Amino acid sequence: MAGMVPYSDYEKALRRVWPFAAIDDFFAPLAVSDADAFNMDVEDAGDKYVITAELPGVKKDQVDIELNEGRLSISVDKKESDEQKDKNYLQKETSEWQATRGVYLKDAANEGISAKMDGGVLTVDVPKQEEKKASVTKVTIE
To answer: pTM of whole model > 0.85?
Structure first.
């Protein structure tokens, strides 16, 4: 009974076993999840939202920004240039990667959105639309 591992801790226990830990350590630099791909901050600046994303080494033509029914999505598709593929690397720690991060902005306006890229930081300004008062209609039962 002392060697039993709760099911929820089973994965952690397997990682401590030599072959699995070595394989995880070997492939860890290659793993990029959406959550770890780039940092994104969302600020409520009164009459607008200011979204900043840290995208070092990414060019503005590799970024796609879209607002769809209040959901702002920032997608990055970083690809290696052709000139770098001709080089003979002994070790290469930069790679091609794709990531998408999004945030829901309930009162975002569809017009007047601006974006700029400066020093590896993307800044998106999304103006707020004036909140519409909920119109309530009283229905009479016949």
So the answer is: no
